[in-house]
Amino acid sequence: MTAPAPTDVHPAWLPPEAFRAIGSRHCLVLGDGGLVDTVVTEVERACAEHGGSVRREAEGPPPSLVLALVPAVGDGVPAELVAALAEVDAAGAGPLGPEGYALARHGEVTVLLADQPAGLLYGLFHLTRLGESAFGAPQAARSHRPAMRRRMLDHWDNVDVHPVMGQVERGYAGGSIFWQAGHPRRDRARVRAYARLLAACGINAVAVNNVNVHATEARLLTERLDDVAEIADEFRPYGIRVHLSVTFAAPVVLAGLPTADPLDDAVRAWWAGTTAAVYARIPDFGGYVVKADSEGQPGPFSYGRDHADGANLLAEALAPHGGVVHWRAFVYNHRQDWRDRSTDRARAAFDHFAPLDGRFRDNVIVQVKHGPMDFQTREPVSPVITAMPGTRMAVEFQVTQEYTGQQRHVCYLAPWWSEVLRFGWGDDGHTVAGVAADGGGLVAVSNVGDDPFWTGHPLAQANLYAFGRLAWDPRMRPAELLDEWIELTFHPDTTADPDLLRRTLHEIMDDSWRTYERYTAPLGVGFMVRPGLHYGPDVDGYEYSRWGTYHFADRDGVGVDRSRASGTGFTGQYPRPWSRVYESPETCPDEVLLFFHHVPYEHVLHSGRTVIQHIYDTHFDGVAEVEAARLRWTSLVGLVDAAVHARVTERLDEQLRCAREWRDQINAYFHRKSGVPDAHGRPLH
């Protein structure tokens, strides 16, 4: 049974009103299984709220909504259900699959069919998105299946409070919903409510601890496995499998073995036995997430082995149980000499992993950040995604806004993710979305904490929702996703001015990622943030550091030369046509020019502006857009919940303060470097 929803947390996109269309009708549910029980409980809750009814036996008065597993359709069921089933068969679409469903409207009955219980659950939440439109005119059966088999969130949550990173690393919405000061949180209702939200947008896997695995977190694999099992118990009713981040050094740290060498027989035996114990306790366990030989985390390099050796070790242990290992490709030299311009952090993942293509076991998923650096406001697509056709690959996004305003700024990220997913190469239609769909799916770093609004900034909920929906269907348009989220979360039709509410939210959010880009780091150059915090401007903060994150601004120009002709050769890691497009400043897209090239300040962009004037103009424009968004939000007083309005107002005030700081520091810095005045005579501080 589902736990009651917590009363001290915002309902996000599942308020009771979202279930009115379902809960006001007579419903029939046919089928058995834990997830079917969840569907029944959800419908019962909706009917109790809105006056409808639900039953699980075919006999009875005619229902207006039928949710049925195909194997459960037998004698005595409504004729409309039989007709819908025949229509699905006639359509020749084949099996609906483990998570698919079909929806039809026959006469006065809406019919939802699924082959397996998970499909029925996802179909139920599809009905909440449709609302009353699911119960209108007759509609032919239409099937729905997820594009990605695995749609996953990684929590960077620490069990112990880390002295630098706190309870949640790169978390901007309070503490962890799983852990508190070294112990599990006992708020089961909050975790169950979270699982419900995730299922409603299509998420089916969650890693519950930080990829940087510290001493206490390492023990979740063994003596603290019960803590993980308790979380799995809360996710299971919503079809979500739990994964665990583990340290590659676990045999040494936990068992006292003298080595973690992936080719050592004792090490292999330890992983096999330990993994079997995990599955004995959590039979539907998803698998491991590993960050190895990266930023101080241990890995196979210590033993003269490579990443395929390391990943295959864990894959071998997981294979008998149906588990997978997500092996992160975020590997680079984090002790770089800033004087050495031949070493390029952007190259690192490709250099390490592309030569290993074809050597990974089938249950290894190489998890690649969508850009070659580190979730910057604008990056090109990582060439690793294009380079490993013989390897299962997951593409990693960052829902938590580490470099995009840290959930203090409005920054709707779906337009960016959509661009990445549509990125294509070659003549045979390869896209990022296709690579993810054929391999390991989409993964993202979660932006949720114990804040009453889940994500700190109420409007940041849209990023979590949109990620799940894009993982289900990467063809969806960002504006369409925002419409869904607005309708579910705010129910504009129940307000005094629904058009104003919808229009204002779109005006504030549609272009907010590009607004953020305009007032922060220009033309794809990246970083320019305060070290450690990664919030607010510090143009030279990382410029002379060991992290390999440089902009190389001098008196003559700015940007990193990554060309083959004169730079690091990074452009050569791309297939055609992109290797040619990125190679020359004349063909490189403006938005990533400084990522690929060091150019003079007077270099003329495709827009017709010079680089320096672009920097000045966009920083003034970005601040003006935040000012306009703040003013627009004031018009929604009385149209949105007062607590939501107050929190967003507070965050917009901070966003405006920070945007002005970015504008003034960036413009002043480049004015002093270049000596070029603003063409419009504005003060550059």
In words, what does this structure look like?
The chain is α/β, with parallel strands linked by helices and 685 residues long. It folds into three domains: 16-144, Chitobiase/beta-hexosaminidase domain 2-like (Chitobiase, domain 2); 151-476, Glycosidases (TIM Barrel), CATH 3.20.20.80; 490-560 and 598-684, Alpha-glucuronidase, C-terminal domain (Alpha-d-glucuronidase, C-terminal Domain). The longest helix is centred in the last third of the chain and has 33 residues, at 642-674. The protein starts with 19 loop residues before the first helix and ends in an 11-residue tail after the last helix. The model has no long low-confidence stretch (mean pLDDT 96). Residues 141-454 form the Glycosyl hydrolase family 67 catalytic domain. Keywords: Carbohydrate metabolism, Glycosidase, Hydrolase, Polysaccharide degradation, Xylan degradation. Residues 455-682 form the Glycosyl hydrolase family 67 C-terminal domain. Belongs to the glycosyl hydrolase 67 family.
SSE order and pairing:
Elements: H1 20-23, E1 26-30, H2 34-50, E2 53-55, E3 65-69, H3 79-91, E4 101-106, E5 109-114, H4 117-130, E6 139-144, E7 151-154, E8 157-162, E9 166-168, E10 179-180, E11 183-184, H5 188-201, E12 205-207, H6 215-218, H7 225-235, E13 241-245, H8 250-255, H9 265-281, E14 287-290, H10 307-318, E15 324-328, H11 348-353, E16 364-369, H12 384-387, E17 393-398, H13 414-422, E18 424-425, E19 430-431, H14 432-438, E20 441-445, H15 461-472, H16 478-490, H17 498-509, H18 512-518, E21 557-558, H19 578-583, H20 593-596, E22 599-600, H21 611-634, H22 642-674
Parallel strand pairs: 1-2, 1-3, 3-5, 7-12, 7-20, 12-13, 13-14, 14-15, 15-16, 16-17, 17-20
Antiparallel strand pairs: 4-5, 4-6, 8-9, 10-11, 18-19, 21-22
